[in-house]
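Field log, afternoon session.

UNIT: design team B
ACTIVITY: writing a sequence onto a fixed backbone
BACKBONE:
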C-alpha cells in the first residue's frame, strides 16, 4: 500500500493507494482502525481495549508443518514475544483454529475458511463484550472483516494461551497467531489498554479508513481506489469577509495554488462549484452509492453473491455492504474534522470539482475533488477511482 502521511507547518497530506499483493499492510490498517473504533467508556472517556498487530517469520508450511502445536519457545519467536507493548506476556500453549489437529496426530483436512472466520469473529466480539463497554455496530463489523482476513490469509491459525513471567495464567485477553504460505506470521492481540495507550492520531485513522475502504471496493483485480486528503493553510482570513468577498478571495487563491496546478489536467472545466449544505449531503450520498456499487461488483467477482442486473431496484445486498457505508461516512468525517476540528460542524465554504462524482466514458470508475474551506485553511479530498 502506497500510504504517505506528511505533517508540518500547518500542511498535512495523506495519500493512500492499496495494492492487491500487500495483504499484511491492509491487515495492519484494519487492526489500527479497529483500535480506533473500539468503544470508550461513556462515563470516563477511557479506552478499555488496545488492539495491536505484529508481523514476523516462521518456517514455511512445506519446511515445517504444524502437525502439532509448536513449542512455547517457537510460539514466542513466531509471534514476536515478548511484546514491547505487553512485556509481561509469554505464550505457554495454543489452540488450533483452522486445522483439526489432535495432539500427536498428523495434519488433518483444514477447516473451511468461512467457518474459521465466523469463529474468530466470535472470539473478537466476545472479548470486547466481556469489557465494560459492549462493542457497537461498526466495531463488530470491522472485527468480522479482520476475522476474514486472518482466516483466508492463514494456512495455520492459532489462539495462543499466555501467562505472566511467573507462570500465572492471564485471562481476559485474546492473542491470535497466523502463518501464511510463505511462512509470514501475523499476531493480533486484543488486551486491556494501559496508561499512555493513546489511539492512533486522526491522520493515521484517515489513511487506514481509506485503505480498508479501497480493499473492499475494487476497481479491478489489480487496481484499487486512490484517495488523497490534504489540509493546507491559505492565510486569507476569510472569517472577516462578507460571503461574496470570501468566495472571490478563495477562488483567486485556489486558481494560483500549487495543489490545483498538480490536478488541473484531470478536468476540462475545473472551476469550483459552490456546495451548500444540501449539495454537500448529496455529494456524500453519491460517493457512498458509488462505493457500494464497486463493492457489490467485488462481492460478485469473489463469488459472494450471484448474478444481478445493475439496473435492478433495489440492488441486492452483499456481505460487508454496511461496513462500506460506514467507512465512506467515516472518511468524510475524518477529513471534515481535520479541517474544522469537529466532524459534526460544516465548513465555512465548500466546493466541488467533478461532483457529483464523474463517471469516465473511456474507462471504468469515477473521480472527483471536494474542497472544505475554513477561514485560515482548506481541506482537499481527491478521489481517483478510475482504472
Amino acid at each position: 500500500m502506497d500510504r504517505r502521511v506528511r505533517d508540518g507547518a500547518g500542511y498535512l497530506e495523506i495519500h493512500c493507494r492499496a495494492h492487491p499483493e500487500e495483504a499484511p499492510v491492509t491487515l495492519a490498517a484494519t487492526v489500527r482502525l479497529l483500535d480506533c473504533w473500539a468503544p470508550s467508556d461513556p462515563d470516563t472517556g477511557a479506552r478499555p481495549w488496545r488492539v495491536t498487530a505484529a508481523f514476523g517469520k516462521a518456517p514455511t508450511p512445506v519446511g515445517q508443518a504444524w502437525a502439532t502445536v509448536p513449542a512455547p519457545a517457537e510460539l514466542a519467536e513466531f509471534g514476536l514475544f515478548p511484546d514491547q507493548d505487553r512485556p509481561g506476556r509469554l505464550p505457554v500453549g495454543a489452540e488450533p483454529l483452522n486445522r483439526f489437529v489432535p495432539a500427536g496426530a498428523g495434519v488433518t483436512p483444514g477447516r473451511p475458511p468461512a467457518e474459521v472466520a465466523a469463529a474468530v469473529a466470535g472470539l473478537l466480539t466476545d472479548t470486547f463484550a466481556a469489557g465494560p463497554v459492549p462493542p457497537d455496530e461498526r466495531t463488530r463489523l470491522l472485527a468480522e472483516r479482520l476475522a476474514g482476513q486472518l482466516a483466508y490469509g492463514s494456512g495455520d491459525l492459532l489462539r495462543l494461551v499466555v501467562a505472566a513471567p511467573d507462570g500465572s495464567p492471564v485471562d481476559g485477553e485474546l492473542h491470535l497467531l497466523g502463518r501464511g504460505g510463505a511462512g509470514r506470521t501475523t499476531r493480533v492481540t486484543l488486551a486491556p489498554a494501559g496508561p499512555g495507550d493513546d489511539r492512533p492520531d486522526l491522520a493515521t485513522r484517515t489513511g487506514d479508513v481509506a485503505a480498508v475502504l479501497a480493499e473492499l471496493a475494487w476497481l479491478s483485480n489489480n487496481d484499487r481506489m486512490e484517495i488523497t486528503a490534504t489540509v493546507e493553510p491559505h492565510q486569507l482570513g476569510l472569517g472577516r469577509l462578507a460571503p461574496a468577498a470570501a468566495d472571490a478571495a478563495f477562488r483567486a487563491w485556489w486558481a494560483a495554488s500549487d495543489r490545483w496546478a498538480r490536478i488541473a489536467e484531470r478536468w476540462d472545466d475545473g472551476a469550483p462549484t459552490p456546495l451548500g449544505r444540501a449539495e454537500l449531503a448529496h455529494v456524500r450520498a453519491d460517493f457512498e452509492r458509488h462505493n457500494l456499487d464497486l463493492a457489490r461488483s467485488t462481492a460478485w467477482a469473489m463469488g459472494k453473491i450471484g448474478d444481478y442486473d445493475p439496473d435492478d431496484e433495489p440492488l441486492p445486498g452483499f456481505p460487508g455492504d454496511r461496513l462500506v457505508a460506514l467507512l465512506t461516512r467515516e472518511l468524510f468525517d475524518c477529513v471534515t474534522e481535520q479541517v474544522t476540528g469537529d466532524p459534526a460542524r460544516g465548513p465555512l465554504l465548500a466546493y466541488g470539482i467533478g461532483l457529483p462524482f464523474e463517471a469516465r466514458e473511456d474507462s471504468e470508475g469515477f473521480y472527483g475533488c471536494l474542497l472544505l474551506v475554513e477561514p485560515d485553511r482548506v481541506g482537499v479530498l481527491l478521489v481517483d477511482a478510475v482504472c
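LOG NOTE: The radius of gyration is 23 Å.
NEXT ACTIVITY: expression trials, pending approval
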